[in-house]
Design goal:
heterodimer; A: 587 residues; mainly alpha; 3 strands; 72% helix; B: 69 residues; 61% helix
C-alpha cells in the first residue's frame, strides 16, 4: 500500500518535470498531476503527520483534519480546471510558476507548524508574482514589483510575529492565538494576503495585469489561504468579523466604478473574501462553516468569472467595458458561463453562492451583530448590480465594431465544468455540507423566506439599475485607492534620495575632504596651527577661504623660507605635556 | 425584444413585493425581521445608497486613466 504524501510535494516536485516534456505528453502530464494530488488527498487521514525534527522543533508537513481537507479538495479541483483552461499556453515557465503556486498553497494548508507555513507562504508569494510578470509588458512588470514589495512587507510582519510568538510560548504549532504583539503582527501578515483594508491594493493593482491564464490561478489561492489561516488562528475575533463587513462593502463600491473587467472582478474578490472573513470572525460553527463554504463556492465562481473575462480578452484583445459589448451572439458558451457565474456570485437561488452567503449572513444574526448583517446585505445588492453591469456591457450592450468567436476548446471545457459545479452545489448543497469543518451542518438554505427574500432583493435592485443605467455606465477613468498614498509617498521618497539627500551627501563629502586635507597639512607642519587662524582672518578679508584649502605642500615646504627654531616646538610640546599632567593629577 | 424583457422584469418585480406578506422570517432577531417584504426596502435603498457612495467616491477619487504615468 502506497502511503499518501503531502500534496504540496506532488505539485512542487512535479513542476520540475514540465520542461522535459513536449506536445500532447506534456498536456496529459499537466492534467495528471492535479488528479494524482486530488486522489492523494482522498487517502490522507488524521493519523498521518509527516513530522520532521529541526533545531529541537517538530516540523509538521501534513496536518490532516476536516478544515485542511475541505480546502485541499477545492484547491486540487480548481487546480485541475485552471490547468485545463491554460493547456494551450506554450510557455513552460507559466506552468512551472502555476504548479509551484498551487503546491505552496497546499503546503500552507497542510502545514502544522509556523516554520513550514512561513516557508510555503513565501514560495507562494514568489511563484505568484511570475504569473503577473509573464504578461511581459511595462504595466505588468511595475504591478508585479508593487505586488512583491507588499507581500515582502506582509511576510516580514508575519515572520516577526512568529519569532515573538515562539519566543514567548515556546511552541511552533499553528493554533489559535491570544492577544498580544505577536497576535497583531501575525494578523497583519495574514491580513495582507487576505486583502484587509487598507493593505489590499496589491490585489486590484496586480491581478488585472497578470496573464490570461495566470489570472485564474491568482483569483483562487493567495486570498483563500489567508482565510484558511484566519480560521485556524483568529476564529471568533470581533475585529476580524467587522473587517469582513468593511471589506464586503468597500469592494463592491469600488467595483461599481471600474471600467477594466478584471479590475472589477479583483475588487469583488476583496468583497467576497469579506464574507468569508466575516464568517470566520463570527466564530460559531455556522459562521466558520459559512466562511469555509463560501471559500469553496467562491473559488469555483470566481475562477469561472476570470475564465470568462480571460476568454473575452483573449479573443477580442480588449479588457475595458467601454470597448466591449454585443458578444453574446459571437461567444454564447462564454456568455452562458459568465451569467451562471454572475448568478452564483450574486447569491441567486439555485446557485452555489446562495447557500454559503445565506450561512454567513445567518451567522451574523445568530451572534446578534445587526450592523454586520446589514453590511453583508448591502454588499449582496452591490454584487448583483456589479454583475448586471459586467454582463450587460460585455455581452448585451450594442457594439457594432466588435466581432469575435469562442475561445479554444480547452478553455470552453474548463468553463463548462466549473459552471456545472456551481449549479450542482447550488442545487445539491449537501455535497458541500458533508465536507465542512463542523459536521453535521444545521442549516437549511431553501426556506421560503430566504428564497423569496433574495429574489425581492435582486428584483428591486434590478429595477433601480434599469432606471439609473447611466449612473452605472463605465467611464474611461481610474479610481484612486489607498495605494495612492504609498505610490506618491514612494515617488516622494525617491525624489528626496535623488535630489536633496544626494546634494547633502555631496556637500558632506566635500566638507569631509577639505577637513582631511587640512589635517594632512597640519600633520606635516604642526606650527601652522598658529598661522592658520591668522591667515584665515587675513584671507577672509582679502582673498577668501580658498587660499587655505589650496595650500600646496610644495609651497609650504620651501627650504629657503625662514623656520622657527626647533626649540619652540619642544617648548610647545613641554607646555602641552605639563597641562595633561596637571589635569591627570588634579582630576 | 429588449422592451418585452424590460416590461416582464418590471411586472415580476412588482408581483414579488406582496409575496413577502404571506411568509414569515424563520429567525426573528432584529426589528426589521418582523417587517414583511423588508428585502424590497433593502434592495431599493441599498441600490440608492451604493449610487450615492459611488458618486461621493468618484468626486474625490476619479482621475484620468494615465494618472500614475
Amino acid at each position: 500500500m502506497i502511503e499518501a504524501v503531502p500534496p504540496a510535494f506532488i505539485f512542487i516536485l512535479g513542476a520540475f518535470l514540465i520542461p522535459l516534456l513536449k506536445g500532447k505528453l506534456k498536456q496529459v502530464y499537466l492534467l495528471v498531476v492535479p488528479t494524482v494530488a486530488f486522489l492523494d488527498i482522498l487517502y490522507l487521514n488524521p493519523d498521518m503527520s509527516w513530522i520532521y525534527h529541526f533545531l529541537g522543533y517538530e516540523l509538521v508537513f501534513c496536518r490532516v483534519d476536516r478544515l485542511s481537507l475541505v480546502i485541499g479538495y477545492i484547491f486540487t479541483i480548481i487546480g485541475f480546471l485552471a490547468i485545463l483552461y491554460s493547456l494551450h499556453t506554450k510557455e513552460d515557465g507559466q506552468h512551472i510558476a502555476a504548479f509551484l503556486y498551487v503546491g505552496s498553497s497546499l503546503g500552507v494548508v497542510f502545514a502544522g507548524d509556523y516554520f513550514s507555513l512561513f516557508a510555503f507562504w513565501e514560495i507562494m508569494a514568489v511563484a505568484s508574482v511570475f504569473l503577473i510578470w509573464y504578461q511581459k509588458d511595462k504595466e505588468s512588470l511595475n504591478a508585479g514589483f508593487r505586488y512583491i514589495l507588499m507581500h515582502i512587507f506582509g511576510g516580514c510582519c508575519l515572520l516577526v510575529g512568529i519569532i515573538i510568538y515562539i519566543g514567548s510560548s515556546g511552541s511552533i504549532g499553528v493554533d489559535r492565538l491570544e492577544p498580544g504583539i505577536a497576535y497583531w503582527l501575525i494578523l497583519a501578515g495574514f491580513g495582507l494576503n487576505t486583502a484587509f483594508i487598507p493593505i489590499h491594493t496589491w490585489l486590484p493593482d496586480g491581478y488585472p495585469e497578470s496573464t490570461i491564464t495566470g489570472g485564474v490561478f491568482l483569483s483562487v489561492f493567495t486570498t483563500k489561504t489567508g482565510v484558511y489561516v484566519l480560521a485556524r488562528c483568529f476564529a471568533g475575533a470581533d475585529f476580524v468579523a467587522y473587517m469582513g463587513g468593511i471589506m464586503a462593502v468597500y469592494g463592491v463600491i469600488f467595483a461599481l466604478l471600474q471600467n477594466d473587467a478584471r479590475k472589477l472582478l479583483s475588487y469583488h474578490i476583496v468583497s467576497q473574501v469579506g464574507y468569508m472573513v466575516a464568517g470566520v470572525g463570527v466564530g460559531t460553527a455556522l459562521g466558520v462553516n459559512g466562511g469555509i463554504a463560501h471559500v469553496f463556492n467562491h473559488i469555483l465562481y470566481k475562477a469561472l468569472l476570470f475564465m470568462c473575462m480571460g476568454s473575452v480578452i483573449y479573443m477580442t484583445g480588449r479588457r475595458k467595458l467601454t470597448e466591449l459589448g454585443g458578444l453574446a451572439r459571437y461567444m454564447p458558451v462564454t456568455c452562458i458561463a459568465c451569467v451562471i457565474a454572475a448568478l452564483s456570485i450574486s447569491g441567486a437561488p439555485g446557485f452555489n453562492g446562495f447557500v454559503s452567503k445565506g450561512m454567513v449572513i445567518s451567522s451574523a444574526v445568530e451572534v446578534h451583530k445587526p450592523i454586520l448583517e446589514l453590511m453583508l446585505i448591502l454588499a449582496s445588492v452591490g454584487t448583483f448590480l456589479s454583475f448586471v453591469k459586467l454582463c450587460y456591457f460585455t455581452f448585451f450592450a450594442e457594439n457594432p465594431e466588435i466581432k469575435s468567436k469562442e475561445p479554444p476548446r480547452n478553455m470552453q471545457l474548463a468553463m463548462g465544468l466549473t459552471a456545472f459545479l456551481c449549479v450542482f452545489i447550488g442545487v445539491y448543497p449537501q455535497a458541500l455540507f458533508d465536507v465542512l469543518p463542523f459536521y453535521p451542518v444545521h442549516y437549511h438554505p431553501f426556506t421560503l423566506s430566504h428564497v423569496i427574500g433574495v429574489i425581492q432583493l435582486f428584483m428591486l435592485a434590478g429595477v433601480v439599475f434599469m432606471l439609473a443605467k447611466d449612473m452605472f455606465a463605465p467611464h474611461r477613468a481610474t479610481i484612486l485607492d489607498f495605494d495612492y498614498f504609498y505610490r506618491m509617498g514612494g515617488r516622494g521618497l525617491i525624489w528626496v534620495c535623488v535630489a536633496p539627500l544626494s546634494r547633502f551627501r555631496f556637500r558632506l563629502q566635500l566638507s569631509s575632504s577639505r577637513a582631511v586635507d587640512i589635517i594632512v597639512h597640519l600633520a606635516k607642519n604642526p606650527m601652522m596651527i598658529f598661522e592658520i587662524p591668522a591667515a584665515y582672518i587675513y584671507l577672509r578679508i582679502t582673498r577668501g577661504l580658498r587660499y587655505v584649502s589650496g595650500y600646496s605642500s610644495a609651497e609650504m615646504y620651501n627650504e629657503n623660507l625662514y623656520r622657527r627654531p626647533i626649540g619652540v616646538g619642544v617648548l610647545v610640546a613641554i607646555i602641552l605635556l605639563f597641562a595633561f599632567a596637571l589635569i591627570h593629577f588634579i582630576f | 425584444m429588449k422592451r418585452i424583457f424590460k416590461k416582464l422584469f418590471l411586472i415580476l418585480a412588482v408581483l414579488c413585493i406582496p409575496a413577502g406578506f404571506f411568509i414569515e422570517h424563520e429567525h426573528v432577531v432584529f426589528l426589521w425581521h418582523k417587517m414583511p417584504s423588508v428585502e424590497v426596502v433593502f434592495g431599493a435603498l441599498g441600490a440608492f445608497l451604493l449610487i450615492l457612495a459611488t458618486r461621493v467616491l468618484a468626486f474625490f477619487a476619479l482621475k484620468k486613466e494615465d494618472f500614475y504615468d
